[in-house]
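## Example record

The block below lists the input lines for one assembly entry, exactly as stored, with component labels intact.
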Amino acid sequence: MQQNDQMAYDRGSTIFSPDGRLYQVEYAREAVKRGSVSIGIKTAEGVVLVAEKRVSSDLLVSETIEKIYTVDDHLAVAASGHVADARQLVEFARRESQRNQYMYEEPLETDTLAKALGDHIQQYTQYGGTRPFGCALLVAGMTRDGPALIESEPSGAIIGYKAAGIGEGRADVEDALEEGYDEGMSIDEGLELAVSVLVDRDDTTLEATEASVVEEDGVRSVTSQELHEYAPEDYDESDEETEE
Amino acid sequence: MQQNDQMAYDRGSTIFSPDGRLYQVEYAREAVKRGSVSIGIKTAEGVVLVAEKRVSSDLLVSETIEKIYTVDDHLAVAASGHVADARQLVEFARRESQRNQYMYEEPLETDTLAKALGDHIQQYTQYGGTRPFGCALLVAGMTRDGPALIESEPSGAIIGYKAAGIGEGRADVEDALEEGYDEGMSIDEGLELAVSVLVDRDDTTLEATEASVVEEDGVRSVTSQELHEYAPEDYDESDEETEE
Amino acid sequence: MQQNDQMAYDRGSTIFSPDGRLYQVEYAREAVKRGSVSIGIKTAEGVVLVAEKRVSSDLLVSETIEKIYTVDDHLAVAASGHVADARQLVEFARRESQRNQYMYEEPLETDTLAKALGDHIQQYTQYGGTRPFGCALLVAGMTRDGPALIESEPSGAIIGYKAAGIGEGRADVEDALEEGYDEGMSIDEGLELAVSVLVDRDDTTLEATEASVVEEDGVRSVTSQELHEYAPEDYDESDEETEE
Amino acid sequence: MQQNDQMAYDRGSTIFSPDGRLYQVEYAREAVKRGSVSIGIKTAEGVVLVAEKRVSSDLLVSETIEKIYTVDDHLAVAASGHVADARQLVEFARRESQRNQYMYEEPLETDTLAKALGDHIQQYTQYGGTRPFGCALLVAGMTRDGPALIESEPSGAIIGYKAAGIGEGRADVEDALEEGYDEGMSIDEGLELAVSVLVDRDDTTLEATEASVVEEDGVRSVTSQELHEYAPEDYDESDEETEE
Amino acid sequence: MQQNDQMAYDRGSTIFSPDGRLYQVEYAREAVKRGSVSIGIKTAEGVVLVAEKRVSSDLLVSETIEKIYTVDDHLAVAASGHVADARQLVEFARRESQRNQYMYEEPLETDTLAKALGDHIQQYTQYGGTRPFGCALLVAGMTRDGPALIESEPSGAIIGYKAAGIGEGRADVEDALEEGYDEGMSIDEGLELAVSVLVDRDDTTLEATEASVVEEDGVRSVTSQELHEYAPEDYDESDEETEE
Amino acid sequence: MQQNDQMAYDRGSTIFSPDGRLYQVEYAREAVKRGSVSIGIKTAEGVVLVAEKRVSSDLLVSETIEKIYTVDDHLAVAASGHVADARQLVEFARRESQRNQYMYEEPLETDTLAKALGDHIQQYTQYGGTRPFGCALLVAGMTRDGPALIESEPSGAIIGYKAAGIGEGRADVEDALEEGYDEGMSIDEGLELAVSVLVDRDDTTLEATEASVVEEDGVRSVTSQELHEYAPEDYDESDEETEE
Amino acid sequence: MQQNDQMAYDRGSTIFSPDGRLYQVEYAREAVKRGSVSIGIKTAEGVVLVAEKRVSSDLLVSETIEKIYTVDDHLAVAASGHVADARQLVEFARRESQRNQYMYEEPLETDTLAKALGDHIQQYTQYGGTRPFGCALLVAGMTRDGPALIESEPSGAIIGYKAAGIGEGRADVEDALEEGYDEGMSIDEGLELAVSVLVDRDDTTLEATEASVVEEDGVRSVTSQELHEYAPEDYDESDEETEE
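Predicted structure tokens for the full assembly:
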């Protein structure tokens, strides 16, 4: 389809193009690709979430940039894309969790949350007067069947992964994850894999990185200082200083 | 009608083209054709549903891609097209089933569900501010008159079939089904036919396949391992490894 | 009026063209013409409804294609055009019938139903945010004054007929009906006339035909097997086998 | 104003053109002109309404085409233009009449009804999301001051007439009425005048004509058979047979 | 501003043009100018309203064309422009008057009514989904301070006048009023002035004229017969007969 | 930015142009500039408001043109721009004042009213379906801290001034005010300054001028006769007669 | 992307461009850049807010231009961009603070307020019928963990800073802040830094500057007179007089 024709169908969530595509959803995926990368790795012991932050100024307090959010004591999500959109979805997730706790007096299952998120996101792709959410989420939780890692994306589709990357350079990240992944890996090995994938990228330093682990005992935050322990041996901390 | 003219009538559910067509509905059918194939076969003993999944990465947990959904203990549906749209319809179906059980204290009839789905889908083709559903469903159930298989599609039309395929390559699938179908076939023979139709296609492996059987005893899930038993003798499992 | 000018006025139910036409209603009539034909004949004893079905595949269960619907025990309608639209109108008719029974404890009169349908259909031609219904109906009933046959169409107009055809090839069908019609004919003669008009058309076989009779005793369905008894003597059943 | 400029202002009820016109209202008047003619004559004894019908097929039951409607036992209206639109206005009129009877326990005055109709019609010319009504009405009633005949048209304007024609060929009809009208004429003379005006037109036969009289005793329907008594002497009934 | 540019800003009440104009309001003023003229004259004894009617046919009952409306026993309005729009405003005025009487148990002041009308009219110039009112009103009343004459126009502005004309040829009418007006004139002199201004215009006859006087004793209607007494001596009644 | 590009962003309150401007708000400011001028001067003793009126006809009652409105006994506003819009804001202000009196039993502070007005005005610049208010106001009041003069304008911004002009020729008026202003001036000196600024303009006569003073004792109206006392010595009253 | 293509996607908050951008949000950021600059500096003792005002006339009362707003006794915000928009957000913040005080009987945390503001702002970027807020805020507060400074901007994103500038010339301001900033600086040193950054700019004088300090004891306003004490030694007050 030519450029002019595509432009006839890409300015509303509520229309299909002649070949059955929803362009606004596809453009929202582009918004995700413009976001900094987030990585999730499901290990034998739990799920690892590591996210890169874009720190544009030395005066910025990087801790205030949230890429990983705790939903409840056994659920966390990492986001890429429009941060204000992601925050809306995180709040939706937290309300769902509280509602579930209140109504059923038991914690929300990871896949139940992912489906609720997906349904919520889908509504924004079918009705007029709104745009799709411009962000993807990695939902990490401990379930009866062990650790679970599920991605939600702007169409409302939800898919489980052993390891996944969302945001800028997703393809390269997933290649690196496929190479290093092992189902039996420990959380420490998961952190090592995630960190090595991140630092391999030219523009990432561990200073501007956020990490959490969802394990049997709940959600645990990993500081960027702690992350250094998981860095490859040849990782040169002094590089961080020369960053511009 | 020329390209330019068609473009004048294809950007809203709420208008007819001069030749009486609803282009947005036709484009939604294109969205169905872009989806991976699902097959339904009505046998003498029950209905077989087999669906192919698109597994884009080794790290993806293929079990989390749902193509076949249990609606209640005697009803299941297989979907092709936009997965988040399909999930909405499945949830609608489940609510209808629960409402029916609650109000009439008896299970929902297959054709009653199909009509309710069709009516729900039709609304999205007549009123503004929304788009049609970009998915088709195969509704499978056991009724007083035996097994039933009904397709719903984006216009809201519902049609019963002895055997049907929806999604990518529907025409080829239906040709193969017509050739191999026999009304008196058993469920096992139905599974064999479905599997043979699927593996004939270049890009399908049984690993990425989901199946369910709706029979007298209810809905029964068939694992991809079990499906191998129904594969043609010349089916080479090693092919699966070399898939890219 | 030239093509370009027509296109300025034909994309909304809620505007008139400079010559006072409602193009969306006219296009909805085109949708009716694209549908398979339905025939109604008012005889001295009751009303005959016969409808052709489009059976696109041998695996399709033609009984599940509904063209004739029973509204209550003395009222039936045959439809042509968008099937999901027609189903909406049939459900509207059934609700009207139940409401009438409940409120007045007497059956709904045929012309009262036709007017209610026409009013409902008219609303979709005057207000924005929706499209007209893309179907026509033949409403058949027994009234105090004997049998009645009324057509409703996308503008909301309703007109009584002695015999009428809606859908594809309406003009030819009506010519044939005018030639063969007699007000004093019996139901059997009405069925004969309807069947002979249908089988005269190249692409019709009695296998893919649905029929009902509305008579003193209520609505009675006529199977496609029974319809063969009404076929002209030179009708060759073997033709049905060679259909493609 | 040139064609292109007019087209900039004629596609919404809610905008004025630069010269202060409401094109959609003017186009709705064109819809009236496309309708078959209705004639009203106010005589000394009552009001005569005669309306021509378009009978497109011998199988059509012309009695089911309504052009003249009884609103209550002293009020009737004749319509030209979109029949489904006219039916809406007639129902509005009947509800007004019932409401008036219920609230004030006295019959609705003719001019009160005409104003209520005009106000209702005006709303459809000022607010968005709808189109004007594509029909005109002749409202006939007996009042304290004697017979009354009032026309309502798509702008919502209402004007009283001694004799009036609406629909196709209105100008010629009004010329003929002006020539033959006399305020002191009896109802029979009024019917004679109306019939002579109608049969003077090439395409009219009394068979396809509907008539009512609103007089002291209430509304009385005049059959097309009775109308023949009022036909001019040179009216040749055999012409009706040769009509095509 | 060029034609093309103006057209970019003149199709919605809710937008300003770059030079700060509301074109839809200005076009509604054009609609007023297309209406037949109405004249108001404030005299020492009361207010005179005289309005010309357009009588397009001898069969039209000119009394049914209302240009002057009594609001309550001390308030009347004359209108020019879209008659159905004017009727809406008159009904608004009557409701305001009744509400005032009911709530405060005293008659509505002329300027209070004019402001309420102006506010009502202004709403239609600021919000989308509607068009301005296409009419102007002359509001005439007796107040504590004596007679009052206020004009409301499509922007919602309200201005008091000693004498004013609205509708077609307003400029000429106002020139003639300025020349003949005297603040101390009696009602009879006011009627004489209004009549002389009207009959000076080529196309006006007193037969098609409506008049009312608002004076100490209330609103009094002046018949077209009575108006002849106020005509200039050289006014030739026979002219009326030759009118076409 | 070129003309064509500007036109892409200037037809809705709810969009920004690429350079961050709200064109509809800027066009509403043009509407203010088209209005006749209003002047406010804050003196040591109170605030002076003087406004020019456009009197287009000798028959117009200039007192009925309101440019200065009393909000409550210690608050007044002068307006320039669309008069019907201004009246809406004045009514809003009066309701706010009454509400404040009712709820808090104390008079509304000048800056509280100005902020409430600004917030009300801002809403009309952010939401669709409406246009900004096409008027500016000078709010004058006595506060605990002495006299206050605040301008509100179509963006909703509110700014305090020692002396200000709104409407046509604002720039020249403000230059003249800057030259003649002194913070310690008396109310009489303020009126002198305002009058001298007004009569310096070619088209202004004191006959068509309205004035009010807000001082310790409340709001006091100044007649145009009284204003002559404040006119410069060389002001020639006879000029007023020759005005056209 | 070319100019023409960008223009296809930049006129509604509710659509993404093909590369995943929300142009209306980006244009709202341009509106912020058009606003006068505001500076926030987090010191060891509290947060300093200093804002430049645009004083266009000597008659303008610069104190009435608000750029810094007290939200409650421990929270303040500085704004740049559309002032009426900023006022809306400040009122939202004040309502949030009161609601929090009322519900939880404790003061609102700085980051809780910033998130509430960000969520509120995000809504205006996802739903149709509105535009984004055309302003950015610097939220300053004292928290359990000491002073906090958070920026909210038109996308709804919120980010913490040690020191930040918003509005015109932001880039230069941030360069100067990075150079002079020290985490351990006192409030006095923070004021000195802010003032020196401001006066370095050609068009700024301390007369037109507003400042507040949020410290342990609450929010404290700093007059422009006091600000002079923090000016660099070479700052020449006489420059202020020559400003144009």
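Chain A touches chain B through 40 residues (CB under 8 Å). Residues 206 and 226 of chain A are 10 Å apart (CA to CA).
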